[in-house]
Amino acid sequence: MTPLLPSRVPEGVRPPAPGPRPFGGVFAAITYIAPMMTHVAGFADGSVTWLLVLFGLGMVGGNLVGGKFADRALMPLLYVSLGALAVVLALFTLTAHNKIASAVTIVLIGALGFALAEIDGTVRQGDAFDAGTMSGRFTIALSDLGEATLLPRLLAAARKRAPGVSFTVRPFDVEDAESQLRRGDLDVFVATPVITSHLTVRVPLFRERYVLMVAADHPRVRGNEVSLAGLAAEHHATVFGPSGHVAPRAVLAAHGLLERVAVDATRFSMLPYLLEQTDLVAIVPEYVGEVFTASHRVRLVRLPFETQPIEIALYARHESSRSPAQRWLVQFMAEVLGEQVSAAQLPPTAAPA
Predict the structure, then answer these.
(1) Which of 122, 142, 159, 165 sits CB 3.0–4.6 Å from 70 for a disulfide?
(2) Of residues 24, 17, 16, the one with CA closest to residue 85
(3) pLDDT tens digit string along 40-92?
(4) pLDDT band at residue 119, thresholds of 50, 70 and 90?
(5) Cα–Cα distances in angstroms (integers) from residue 141 to residues 37, 106, 186, in the given order
(6) Is residue 2 part of a domain?
């Protein structure tokens, strides 16, 4: 997420200022930089000004980097920066005797020290993130189904509860989503595949059943149910791609119907356009089908067998690795998307074959 800036300071909350408490070694280096660089490294007195400029450039760079990445991977960045600073300060006892090495070292001390100051400010914010007074941009990954069905609900709620928050939406890729989350390229992603990892947390949102979607005026499938023989007689459209949504194909395979697949596409969003103009049928999640029936000439039909419900879940980094803004995002998305989303649930009993 990009750095968040308060449009006004919430009552009772003061922005934390970077303090010297965790950075005694850095401020000791600042205090004695002139005598160390002249008496130990051998620089002339007139060079101190330029050496302080170098130190200042390191401070500015560290502050920018720390601010940019503190909201992406807070705790990993903190551990890496602290470790690197400890190593650099220890090496300064050796590099201080060489002009070039000592100049490089003070740049690194400035960069690491003030990157940590920025991170420290983020850490000490605690739970002070106020969605009503903060602005910023979150990056989330959704499948095309998520973009069509969940994103509108998410944005509608955000406009009311967090008007300064905006979103960058990236296509969900089941192979790369976890790596993107770990690198800080994503704040969260929503998926149906169960991704097991010690690096992420899975937050269940809701469960869905599958139904059959057909054209509103389909010539053979009529009423609100279809028999197994009728399903086997139709040609199917399925989706198979990076979204990882493979359950419809698995259902067809379990009943020996994969050979009835006439179209195998990569995006669910194309299905209503395809079905309303052909006699193809498709197995889709129920809520998705309900959304499509509101805008396309398609309708939903009960399947002739029970299907394993799918669970849509939110994935994020562990609580300790989230920034205050990311903690708010996870809670917000769980509240908004975790509500009952399918008003009309089909009866659990199937039609006779």
Answers:
(1) 122
(2) 24
(3) 888 888 888 888 888 888 888 877 776 666 655 666 777 777 888 888 888 88
(4) low
(5) 50, 40, 7
(6) no
CB 119 within 8 A of CB 302: no
CA–CA gap between residue 73 and residue 187 (Å, rounded)? 9
Rounded CA separation 35/56 (Å): 17
1: Cβ contacts below 8 Å, ≥ 6 apart = 71, 72, 136, 137, 138, 139, 187, 323, 325, 326, 329
Range(s) of the domain holding residue 197? 134-205+311-337
- Structural domain count of the chain: 3
Q: Are residues 287 and 318 in the same domain?
A: no
Beta strands across the sheet bearing 282-285: 282-285, 210-215, 298-301
In this structure, are 236 and 322 located in the same domain?
A: no
**Which residue do the tokens 């389909």 mark?**
218
Residue 4 lies in a domain: no
The DSSP 8-state label assigned to residue 281 in this structure reads: B
The pLDDT of residue 148 is above 80: yes
